[in-house]
Amino acid sequence: MYVPQGTVDFSSVVERVERSDVDAVLVLLVGQDAIQFHRAFAERELHRRCLRLTTLMDENMLLAAGPEATIGLFAAAGYFESLITPERLEFGSRYARRFGVDAPPVGNLGQSCYEGVRLLHALLEQARSVDVHAINAVADTVSYAGARGLRHLRDGHAAQRIYLAEADALEFSVVAELAEPERSTTFRQPSGGD
Asked: What confidence tens digit (pLDDT) does each residue in 165-190 have?
């Protein structure tokens, strides 16, 4: 089902899910739209028979939706505040020192923007030019470090670990690490976590 961005009333969408016999729903909504959908989904108690998976939800949206609206919600992303990796812990420590321990969570979306800036900096530093051809010529030699660990570009892409997490009240609990594309397509338990 597709809905226009800015949808506030998701009653017809959740009614359609309620009438169906689906076991899971892939949610590709962002921002307030996603929050409204998850609240409407919970009001119908659809979490009792149907899981949700999203690739577009971060901790800020989880907080805004509230714990009642996110029961049975799973998210897949390259970064979660709850990750216990040396790179994430170091990034979180620097963020807390800079903005305070009560600063809003960075979340996957904000952290992705930060990674993009780190990548751009590494590309420009290696190419020593803003010329696209010069950047492309050095792209596969570039690496950069961030909260997701050391990333290397190959064929214009930065392969990375992707995690599966379950909403647990007001945070995500990482339940598995999806293997990097060049390794395999199997599930593994995340390193350093429960």
From this structure: 999 988 999 999 986 655 433 434 45
pTM of the shown model: 0.82
44/66 same-domain check: yes
Separation between Cα atoms, residue 1 and residue 183, nearest integer Å: 34
Same domain, 79 and 108: no
DSSP state of 111: H
Chain mean pLDDT for the chain:
88
Q: Is residue 54 part of a domain?
A: yes
In terms of domains, do 147 and 164 share one?
A: no
The string of pLDDT tens digits covering residues 91-148 is 999 999 999 999 988 888 888 888 889 999 999 999 999 999 999 999 888 888 888 8
Long-range contacts of 111-120 (CB under 8 A, 24+ apart): 111/79, 111/146, 111/147, 111/148, 112/78, 112/79, 114/146, 114/147, 115/144, 115/146, 115/147, 115/148, 115/151, 118/144, 118/145, 118/146, 119/144, 119/151, 119/153, 119/158
pLDDT tens-digit readout, 23-51: 999 999 999 999 999 999 999 999 999 99
Question: Which domain does 144 fall in, by range?
Answer: 86-158
